[in-house]
Write a structure and sequence with these properties.
Largest interface: A-B, 38 and 37 residues
Order of helices and strands of chain A: HHHEEHEHEEHEHEEE
CATH architecture of the largest domain in chain A: 3-Layer(aba) Sandwich
Distance between the termini of chain A: 41 Å
CATH topology of the largest domain in chain A: Chorismate lyase
Largest sheet of chain A: 6 strands, antiparallel
Structural class of chain A: alpha+beta
Radius of gyration of chain A: 20 Å
Helix content of chain A: 25-40%
Number of strands of chain A: 9
Strand order of the largest sheet of chain A: 3-4-5-8-7-6
Oligomer: homodimer
CATH class of the largest domain in chain A: Alpha Beta
Shape of chain A: globular
Chain lengths: 239, 239
DNA sequence: GAGTGGTCTAGACCACGCA
DNA sequence: GCGTGGTCTAGACCACTCT
């Protein structure tokens, strides 16, 4: 019917349903989810498919499983879920997060050398550059510098990013979905722009993350340099 | 025959084989792994089982998959893989890592309040306490404070931990396997013991991790407070 | 013993990349 | 067109937990 063939897999649909039920409070911390066999019947699918959905929920920290008992809903983390796969906006929740654009998006050359190795295609295409500050309760928490290869993202630089999730824009407008990535992190003393944008004193410790973010497009990754003021909020992750 | 029923699942065995082949250089960065169908035949198992093994390799960052092409061996990270599931010793490699015991293991009471919420059983049992420093190339990298619930770990306090992996000892001597966990991290200024053990100046930024580590034993988790000097090595993780 | 999750088989069809 | 990985079915047996 419509122009696109969406075809969301069944296990993903079930994942989204259960996730929504957990985050919206239908199931609360400590509750048991329906058994795998129940979920088969109510969703009209077989156990391997149900298990794919549950595996994802485990991976994302929403439930834990116990053989012989069932699937138990976990407490939702109160920290900042930046280390997991979701973008910052989804991790913190739209309500409390504001985004201020400092610069861009503009097209320019890549830094040379760049933190991560770049392919020839990436180098030739140039890069879309953005600087943003993310605020929680109106206090700056992240200073985020984003680098996207300038490949097949029409009209990207004329879009509005103020208070919007980059991940959402990529997914909804360009069908680019984040599938994972890698990151390096260290503690550094704040200086220069970092002090200014994060509102911290010179020399104060801040978290420094370098991330490579992979997508469903083959050979399309983008990059993010992130400075985080962790005096009030910890970063949170599961493994 | 023997006293224990080990019964390592087939997908785990295949995972270990492939992992060893990758880390030992049989497959190198950029190489294609055999196709899933090939792996079915050579290992005498079916595709869902092969896929479980490959999924784990993807999760641990050894391979990436591309529909229509195959499974590609990734570059092995050069950073410190502390954010993934393996213990520190396996993450860095035994060759370069030394462990110095500063204190313990001794049995004592839990800090009150403790960083993570504790169950009644955990509180009553008391805690096994250890302080260790991990050195890479003879330079201190981690200052690690470990808290284990004192539940069913006979003779634990009289074991030798010098230059040995805690995860290995737990697995081999007590059949306690690490299945995952959660962590909070922040950048803090070094002071007191941290300066001393990590050999950094007062006020120098260090990484501070608080980890809860879950195991295959129901209701058995242990805890680790970790300070890391990231001036020379980054921490590395995939997501 | 009944119910749960853990593992596994033996097939099937589809979407994607490449020659 | 062919081989690849992605998804899914319809069963099976086992180990574990609870009663």
């Amino acid at each position: 019917m419509s122009g696109k063939k969406q075809n969301i897999p069944r296990y993903r649909q079930v994942y989204e349903i259960l996730r929504k039920h957990i985050t919206s409070g239908v199931y609360r911390e400590g509750d048991m989810l329906p058994s795998e066999n129940d979920l088969c019947q109510t969703n009209g699918i077989t156990r391997p498919t149900v298990r794919l959905a549950l595996d994802q929920l485990v991976k994302d920290g929403f439930i834990k499983k116990q053989q012989g008992k069932g699937s138990i809903v976990c407490a939702q983390p109160k920290g900042i879920g930046i280390l997991s796969v979701a973008g910052t906006t989804t991790a913190i929740g739209k309500e409390n997060l504001k985004t201020k654009i400092l610069e861009g998006p503009v097209i320019r050359k890549w830094d040379d050398p760049f933190v991560f190795p770049l392919s020839e295609v990436e180098k030739e295409s140039g890069c879309i550059y953005m600087e943003r500050v993310r605020l929680v309760n109106n206090k700056p928490l992240f200073y985020d510098i984003t680098f996207l290869p300038n490949i097949n993202l029409p009209r990207f630089t004329s879009r509005t990013f103020e208070n919007r999730s980059l991940f959402d824009i990529l997914r909804k407008s360009y069908q680019v979905k984040v599938t994972g990535g890698e990151q390096r992190l260290k503690a550094i003393p704040a200086k220069g722009k970092i002090c200014q944008h994060l509102d911290v004193k010179e020399g104060e410790p801040v978290l420094h993350l370098e991330r490579k973010i992979n997508t469903n497009r083959i050979d399309y990754s983008f990059y993010s340099t992130l400075f985080c003021n962790t005096t009030e909020h910890d970063l949170f992750g599961i493994f």
